[in-house]
Amino acid sequence: MPRPVRRLNQQSLSSLSSEVINRVLSKLDWRSILKCRLICRFLRSAVDQCPAAQYAIELAVSGMEDGTTRSHFTAASRLALLKERNACWDALKWGETRDIPLLQKDIIWNLCGGVFAQSGLPGALRLHQLPSQYRNIQASSWRIPLPNNTYDFIMDPAQDLLALVETPVLIATHNNTKSHVRIRIHLRSIGTGLVHPSVINSVRVIDHSLDMQCSWVDLSLQVSGNNLGVLFVAQFETPELAMWNWKTGELILTRSSCDISTFAFLTSHLLLVGSLMNESKVMQPRLFVLDLSIPSKIKVTLTADYTCIFGLPTFSLVVKPTKIVIRSDPSPEWKPNPRTQIPFSIARGQRLFLITICVEEKKKEVSYDLFAPADILLSYVTALPPQTRQHIINWDMWGPTGTRLLKSPPHSIVWTAYVFGSRFVLLVTPPKATAGQPLQTLQVWNFNQLAIKRATALGLENENMHYVNDTTVIKDKVFVKTIRTNLPYSVTTRTLPPRSPEESTFTDAMCSEDAIVLATSDRCYLRILIF
Description:
By secondary structure, this protein is an alpha+beta fold. It contains nine helices and 35 strands. A hairpin with a 4-residue loop joins strand 14 (about 240-245) and strand 15 (about 250-255).
């Protein structure tokens, strides 16, 4: 005999105090809260009047997560701050501006976690904490020692980590028949410049040997949690990708292959690697996914072991792909420093990958940008059976729906931090100047799908914002066939205030969690637009 169904007794719910109901709602995730809201009028009213529930929903729609502390902020105050912050970003209404002088034109720099660092002072690294008026972050600057032989660096303010790479040194063997390049990486504290306290004493410096004959090496560095990755590229040499646990110094992956061009962390244990050619040496860009969960010190080629490949649109034989670059920030393991007192921060799953592919067509370079959210890529990887190896995911399976392929809008090859979270920022300068300096337009493209769905459902509009929902169709002869992609996004536009003829022209824009950074043509300073 079937058990009788117990129906919800609204009267029993209404007998509970609002404090009890609010406490229950505060323990639920945003999806469960929305389901509760659909049950009955009483729960709908309870959800709408519960600051904690509204805050959880607003966090999800904003692509944010709750902060590391709740001592100074109530749910209501955090909700008010978040809404005000979102409104300012939606209208591109920054609260104040600050200028950071660049110490010299040829600097080593890094922008990460709201901290801008630059070389230029003899024996010192200058760091600037960018402020935030909505997240309780104060502006500050400080210096730490920098070895004179520093070649490049990367940092992770959340972990107080600064990884310094010494100038590569070519080491000749005794018989001069085989040389190698010595790489040394120092692991320091951003706050003090001393050895990082999380590094074990026996591994204060990571030593690595490259099978190369040239010491002029281009580096690409990435940090995610305990993982430090470096891509080494030199002319006429085979690129090498190496990955370490920076706390222990353990080498967990090394790949050496002509088809390695770029990389980024997809998750804490999955690596996304961009390649320009296939096994037949045909120039055809692809994205490889490598598994870091099983460490191996054995150096192999890129195609020797991988989880899967994401195919990209096929280029015609009349063009030659010359470059592929992957940009994404922050890393999948990024989270604020636990010592900070912030009400909220970007959600770790809220990440956009921008894959730029350059091709040579009739001796001219043309580039295309593929915008792909991390969750789209992960949905295909996680759907694979366990222990899957060398699986091919063709472009037609994953690309047309959930990505957006466009001819590249203007973005820099020097000031490369133009992607943060789901946002992409660019600066548009008219080809012809009017009286005085030309007026420049700042654009922010936001690929946050929940925010777009809510705005569409509620009919929200902004005079500075429009939504792109239609399908992009590319019929260029660059591709073998017509390419159709669809990923909704919003475009917010604001014209920058006019400048005097004496002021430098802004040429590039970068983005962080709380600011837009503008670079000048003479590289004398950066202008920070603070939210």
